[in-house]
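Notebook, p. 212. Picked up where the previous page left off. The plan for this session was modest: take the two constructs that came back from the sequencing core last week, fold each one, and keep the raw output in the notebook itself so nobody has to go hunting through shared drives later. Recording the first one now, exactly as returned: residue sequence, then the structure token string.
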Amino acid sequence: AEYMGLAALAAAATRCAHADERAALRLDDGSSVDELTLVFELPGVAGYELCPGGANVPVTIENVGLFVRAVERAVLHDGVAAQLAAFARGFEDVFSLSHLRALTPGELEILLLGSSEPWNADEIIAHARVEHGYERQSRVVRELADVLAEFDLEQRRAFLKFLTGCPRLPFGGWAALEPPFTIVRSATKGRANADAALPSVATCQNYIKLPEYSSKDVLRERIVKAMLYAQEGFSLS
């Protein structure tokens, strides 16, 4: 028997020429489609029939492909058609949808969701506001910019969510962030205390309070830990 999810099982069933081959297919937990006791209703929505009389039509290995396609249509098209139409009408009141045809999907994503391009340390420093104990040429400020520029995509998203509450920079990158990225020194007594402290942020102001860590490695470790601790603190996106 071959184990898989329901959609993959449906696809596999269409490739099987014989009924006994289809009957041997199994889901990830080892159960057959029949054992799920599904009917042609949208899962989790009582009374939403996927076809006329769907409440009385059992899902079997022979019709599971039709069931999967019907669920996809209900969730991604029929179930949201009214809401999407209302959104389009409201959007038209502000900006003609026809004008968006001049943009590629990628360009539209950047305009609406912001940039996810790799970062450059010099650019970060150039557009940062450095105050209260640090200057642009301060070692810790430079090491912070270097660490951020070395982050991969997921780390960049996590840092931005930690700093701003949003996992992407606005269109225009660091230069367009408002208020600007602000770096200030966090007061600690002694280097050992600084290395034990985590950075903190004022999210509404894009403002990070950064202890004067003893090395770039310590700074990276403390930043990453603070980012991870803060991931459940804000759900703005």
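Okay, moving on. Second construct, recorded in the same format:
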Amino acid sequence: MRELDFGFVNVGDSRIITFKARSALDIPVTCHYSLKSDTKQQKERKREPLFTILDGTEVIIQPRGDICVKVEFTPQKDCKHMDKLNISLSGGGFSQRFGIKTIGSGGRAHLELVKRPGLLVHRSGDHVLTTDSDGPITLGMENVGKRSMYVRAVVLDGYGKKMEGDIFSPSHSFVIGANVKQPLKVDISRVRMNDSGRCTSSLSSVSGMGIRRSSTTSVNSIGSSASSRGRSAPSYTIKLYWGEETQRRRMIV
């Protein structure tokens, strides 16, 4: 393991990551761990620690035994923070030292939709909008977080297939800055038609199209379903996938 990545955490909140390791030795060894920032100079400045080791800093590892080190990240500013977890092993004439980077960012993006009739929040956390309107739909969105976010929108037909065309305005994918409002207009009448007069759908489903934030965090999604008059089943579905813009840039570098 090269680093402990805490991802994005709001200022004032905290996140704990547990680092687990197993000894390959047949003798007991003493394990001592500390943070690079945990120095006399840092303590004299009387600054609150950004990264903190919980449950003590020393433990005896039994032969072929395991250890669990808990590190807590509590950001104080909306910026990137870094430190280093130093680990030293000793016992029976054996000694070894190594370090693991700790990385975390203060502040995170968070998408909210302007309230409107028919907009519900499911237990899964998804937002679903059901409407019988045949005309353009405008979704009022706002990034109420402290960081820029990336949003990607798709429209699915009744079979769950992606619908193509110049449907979205300003675009099907865009960036919303921190504390910025952004309306999204969805015009289903602009769906591209094929030679038979039917709407064109992609053969690939929407699964896997979201923007992932970290290995420990699921995709954020917002869904909207619109049903035609006289039909019991939704005729199309609008979904918005969103995540941290900083993380998206890392993925495409």
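Notes on construct two before I forget. DSSP finds two helices and 18 strands in the chain.
Flagging for discussion at group meeting.
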